[in-house]
2-C-methyl-D-erythritol 4-phosphate cytidylyltransferase
Amino acid sequence: MTQDHTAGPTAAPENPAPWRPSRTVAVVLAGGTGTRLGLGIPKQLLKIAGKPIIEHTLAVFEAAPEIDEIVVLMATGHLADAQQIVDKAGFRKVTKVIEGGDTRNATTRIALDAVGEGDCNILFHDAVRPLVSGRIVRECVNALWTYSAVDVAIPSADTIVQVDEDDCITDIPVRSSLRRGQTPQAFRSGTIREAYRLAEGDPHFAATDDCGVVLRYLPGTPIKVIDGSDENIKVTHPVDVHLADKLFQLAAAQAPRVTDERSYTEELTGRTIVVFGGSYGIGHDLAELARRYGAQVFPFSRSSTGTHVERAEDVEAALKTAFEATGRIDHVVVTAGILEKGALAEMDQDTMDRVLQVNFVGPVIVARQSLPYLQQTKGQLLLYTSSSYTRGRARYALYSSTKAALVNLTQALSDEWAEFGVRVNCINPERTATPMRTKAFGEEPEHTLLAAETVAQSSLDVLISDLTGQVIDVRRAPGEVPAQPGPARAERDASLADAG
């Protein structure tokens, strides 16, 4: 359908009154039944990356400062499921969870009634597009200051062909002018209400797209298109479930930065942090930084305390020491790890066992032993992966695979432990200047490495945040050069490179 841009009775006046919405409402459309996925439950309730799809979607709008209110239109018979997700996640912006209609048109009408009268911005979004970004939400809302209807779309990478009833090509449109539509679709409330009012008089009215309703019944209204993203996929078919799950695994959150140092002191004074692998590198710098802000820190390692993370009795003793000294454990951090390079076929059994035990079995043991303590404080377990987790690397296959396993462990435990109020996150630093890396790769140009202190700072930001189930990327700032340790520390770190 093309739009007639000639002036008409519905065209915007040359000097329209300034738009002054009272609020911005996100309407999450969750009326699908999941029949194309072959499920017994609506697809929006299917879990991806440890959470129901609709929870991921709602979290984006909950976190968006541009959104004031969220209304959920849920599939018939599943209102209680949606309300339970909202209550458990603590979404404060969700004001209504109501039943949707039999068609998209009917659901939109119900949503408009639920939003009520008055001038406001309304964003309609598919609940099964959980990877919508805050950037897209922000640009939609911003565009409504100028336009009364906004769509989200991306260029078509494929050639589009038009066919007849016999599946024979009748036209091949020019690809450069084609876009693939996504959601959200955003409107000034008066515009979308008027479009549906006019549509009610059309006995042949049927649409699955709200911008299409505006396009047809308010032909003088420009519809602004903003850039969507390839990641903003709609989970419709079985393959989409796997794609979305992988995209969530690869997506990395950003650590919320605290600019006021007094906030660190307020958050960490009196807290107890246990660091496994705290004798050098990231673990050491994290311990020193946390102490500076008033935390009671207990670092454990093979070299300094004889603590082996792969030994349950060692981990139990370490946690008991910290708890008996302070009466609490708020955060447990596992930076311990070893990196052994070499072809898998050439590795001896002892080396393989050591890599697997320290890099994966150890964090699993720490997680199990830490839970009772973290339940008491509603604390956090913090693990560390590596950029190699996204794809196995030749000559350190075991290291790459164990780091990928830690990402899955993070996502699984964050879901398992949500009922206890315990958070689990994973730091993903790029190549970092640590003794372990120097031992494995030798001397490297300083400007190519991230400073361990930078990773420690981001780790602290995550510990005092509300994040859970996230992989947090830490990247080198432009021009950043790792600080050089003094001679004494350099000698000590070198001697500890095998200690973990």
